[in-house]
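Lab meeting prep.
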Amino acid sequence: MLLDGVPVSKMATRTATAMNMDLLHWYGLSGRKLPWRTSTDPYQILISEVMLQQTQVERVIPAYHRFLDSFPTIRHLAAASPRQVIQSWQGLGYYRRAVRLHKLSQIIVSDMNGEIPSNFHELIKLPGIGQYTASAIACFAFSHQIPAIDVNVSRVLHRVFGQQHRSKSSLPSKDFYNLAAESIPLGSASQWNQALMDVGSIFCKNRSPHCTECPLHNACHHASNASQKSSSATPFVPERKTRSRIPFRGSSRYFRGRILHALSKLEAWENIAIEELFDDINAEIEQESKLDRQEFHQILLTMSVEGLIFEIKDNITTDVLAVKLPS
C-alpha cells in the first residue's frame, strides 16, 4: 500500500519515530489539564466528547461538571425527562446534541443493560455516534490502540507527513487512517491522541500555525518545507481567555437559545403563550435584529420536530397556542 508513492509502513516509521518522542515528552510537561482526561469511565468520556462537538473547551468544563452532578451515571441520564436534560445543557448551544444523547442513554440502558460498548464497531452502530466519537470512547475509556482523528489531529498529521489537507472534514481516507494507526507508539494511544489534539489547538492553527514554537517542528514536513508559505516567523502569542461574545446575535441559533432559556425558567407544569414568548425573546434586541413572526413560527416548528419543545395546539384550528419543554 502506497501513499503518494511511498510505502505507508516506511513513511510512518520514518516520520513517527522523529515525532513521537518530542510529542509525548511535551505532552507530559505541558498538555492541557482537562477534567475528563483524569477519567476512564466510558460514560464520562461519552459526555465530554458530545459536549466538545462544536463547542470550545472553556465553555465545556463547567457544563461537564454541572451535567455529571445532575446525571452521575448513564442510568440517571436515561431516567431523566427531556426537560431536565435540556435544562442541564444550558450554555452549550446546539441542543439537539442533548436530545440525541438522552435517547442514546435510553437505548444503552434498555438494550445493553446500561453498559456502553467497548468496541469501535459496536459503538459506531449507535445513533448519533460517528467515527471520531466511537474511536475516542474506545481509546480513552477502553485503551484500544487506535487513532481518534478529529479536525485538529487530522490537520496536524497531514502537515507532519507532508500531505495536503483538502477538506475541513476530519474523516480520513483508508490509507491515511492506516498511516495514523501505524504511527501510534506502543501502548500510548490515549496520550498520543490527546497530545495531537493539544498541538492542533495551541500551535498548529488552521490559518496561522506557530511552527517554530511547536514541539513537532523538527519532525514536521510542513514546518521544514521552505517552499510552502509558513507563518513560522509570526511571533507566538499564547491564547488568552476572551470575554464571551455572541457573533450570531440575531441568527436562528441565537433565538433558539433564547427560547430554550425562557422555557427552562418555567415549572414542569407551566407553559407560555406564543405571543408572550415572541415578545420575551425580542426584548432588548435592536430593531434590525428582531425576529419576525414568520421566522419565529418556523423556528418553533423546527424545534418541535427535533424534540426540543412541546407545542400546545388548538383542538379545532391546530394553531399553536403555547409551548413548553418536553416532559
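Slide two material, second protein:
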Amino acid sequence: MSSSVSEMAPVEPVVSPETRPRRRKAVGINARQNGAAFLFLSPWLIGLVCLTLGPILASFYLSLTQYDMFTPPQWLGLDNYVKMFTEDGRYYQSLRVTFTYVALSVPLKLAFALGVAMLLNRGLKGLGFYRSVYYLPSLLGGSVAVAIMWRQVFAYDGIINQILLKFGIDGPSWITSTDYALYTLVALAVWQFGSPMVIFLAGLKQIPQDIYDAAEVDGAGPFRKFFSVTLPLLTPIIFFNFVMQIIGAFQAFTPAYIISGGKGGPADATLFYTLYLYEQAFTNFQMGYASAMAWVLVAIIGLATTLSFQSARYWVHYGDER
C-alpha cells in the first residue's frame, strides 16, 4: 500500500544548480523588456487616464448636477435627464433636425461616393490626380474656411442664385430660409464624399475581373452586373462606410455653427444636436445639462451602431461565407 501511494505522489522536477541562474537571468530580461515597453507606452497611458477616462467620468458626474463653471456643482440626480425629455422643446427640435440631416446626408453621400468611385475605376488616365482632387473636400470639410465659403455660395447674391438668374429664376436666400437652410448643410456633407469614395475605390479594385467575365457569358448587362456582382461583393465596404458616416453625421457641428451664425437659425431650422449642446454649455453655462445631453448622444450613437451591426447579418456578405 505504501509503495502504491508513493507511486501516485507527484514528482517535483529536479532543477540543477546550473539551470537556476539561467532561469533568473531570463526572468530579469523579461522584466527589463516589459519595463521598457511600459516606459514607451506611458505617455499614451497617461493621456488615456487624464485626457479620456478622467473627463468621461467627470462628465457623467456633472450630468447629475447643476454646474455653471463658477460655483461648485449641486447634486440633482436625474433631474437634467427628466427636464431634457419633458420640458425642453428646443431639445426635441435639435433631435428632429439632426435625425433629418443624418437620414438625408449619409445615403446621398455614400451613393455619390460609390458612383464617383465606379467612374474612377474604369481605368482613367491621371487616376491619382482625380483621386486627390475628389478627396480634397473631405480634408477641408470640417474647416471654418469651407463653411464660410459655402455660406457665400448659397447667399442670396451667391453663385447658385447667379447661375439660376441666367435661366430667369430668382432663387431664394438659401441659408436664411427655413425651407432650404438644412438642405444646404446636407449638400455640404454630400460634397465631402472623398473619404468613402477612396475606400469604395479600393474595394472595387479587389473584385476579380473573372466574376464580371462570367456574368457577361451568362448574358448579364451593366445593371445586372452592378446589382448581382458589384453590390453584393461591396457590402462589407458599404457597411464600414455606413457606420463611420453615421457616427460622423451625428457629431456634425462646424458647418451648422458657421452657416447659422452659431444660433441654429433660421427659426432653429439648423439647430443640430451638437450645436444646441454647445449653446447650453458655453452660452447658457449649463454645463451639467450639456453633460447630460452628451451622454444621451453617446447612447444614440451606440444604439444606431448596434442596430447597424444587428442588421448587417441580413445584407452584408463576406467572402469566407459558405
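Talking points for slide two:
Confidence is low (pLDDT under 50) at residues 1-6.
The chain is about 70% helix and 0% strand.
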